[in-house]
Amino acid sequence: MPPAKRDSSEPLRVALLSYRSKPHCGGQGIYVRHLSRELAGLGHTVHVFSGQPYPVLDDGVVLEKVPSLDLYNDADPFRAPPLREWRDWIDVLEVAGMWTAGFPEPLTFSLRALRELRRRAGDFDVVHDNQTLGYGMLGVNRLRAPLVTTIHHPISVDRRIELEEARGFQRLSKRRWYGFVAMQRRVARRLAPILVPSTSSADDIVREFGVARSRLEVVPLGVDTSVFHPRPELRVPGRVVCVASADSPMKGVATLLRATAKVATESDVSLTVVGRPRGDGPTAQLVEELSLGDVVRFEHGLSDDELGRLLASAEIAVVPSFYEGFSLPAVEAMASGTPLIASRAGALPEVGGDAACFVSPGDAEELAQRMLALLGNPRERDALSSAGLARVRERFTWRAVAEATARRYRESMADVAAAPLPV
Predict the structure, then answer these.
(1) Are 143 and 132 spatial neighbours (Cβ–Cβ below 8 Å)?
(2) H-helix or E-strand containing 48?
(3) Cα–Cα distance between 119 and 299 in angstroms, integer?
(4) Most buried pick, 120, 151, 172, 286, via CB within 10 A?
């Protein structure tokens, strides 16, 4: 049955879906936490349905655990679960996907979430999918539940960048791992409305996924200024900070390491990367190759306050990515009053505007020269700090994100209520 009409001021019951929700890194978990908190602050009831890793949520938001076999746990990745842990055919599908070198979580979470929503039909006014884009989401549409989707950026871009970096057997392995992208492309074409964080991301989704531009609506993301704000007394001379998945080629950490090695020959510099590289992975190998053991350190598992203090302690923050659909780390750096250097790629110029310095993605020499120039120029750092703070206050607040999202919920509910019943 279609949802009952609700008064425009009446609080909504929201089911927010996220197939994995790392709380402090990766945009999905951060998005879920802050959007759910602000929606609850507006008076709505929010239930977050998530697989592992589960998100950190604020008071007033309900976590509905949708457990998987947790095959990609950071502490025990690609584990072989004993048969006693297998519960149903979806678990079989999940294990089969992993054993054949794929990444089944978007599909299997979508199927589990659909099962839960069928069981709880009538409990929610609107369902919001945070970039799962699994086939189960088409089942949600058939329930005639208003469905709003967020796509941060098309994962096909990640796939292309990683394939360009891969060699030999790695290329075959990467192609198989990213096999779920074909599903996401098919599903995205059948969904509306879709919320995206930037015009750049919208353009990429149209190009990569073939989604009609009329189905997309830009709602920029926000930043928690109670955590990310200037703390001038903490500034450490020469400190550079980068928040990124350390081994992901798309994040450009290798470029930053090579640039830092050049800077270290001319200036006192220390680099902190918030991300955990594999001990035998390419990032750890490059640190050893460049003899950066005394210059670079990696942090992970930081609390919100620890991350906020770290960003505010740096003289420079760098986002060296080859692509970003938005970049929360860029906005968090600006909110911390930390001068930002970013790649001229994806949505980064749109996010940073005139409040950041931009360099060519992948160009370690250009990045090194920009880092040296900024480290040696306190006046320019102060100007960038002030510009970044002003830009955040003007454009990027989570309350505005929640208000715009709730408006779209109501529009979607009205569209579903007005649509004719299927024959």
Answers:
(1) no
(2) strand 45-50
(3) 41
(4) 151
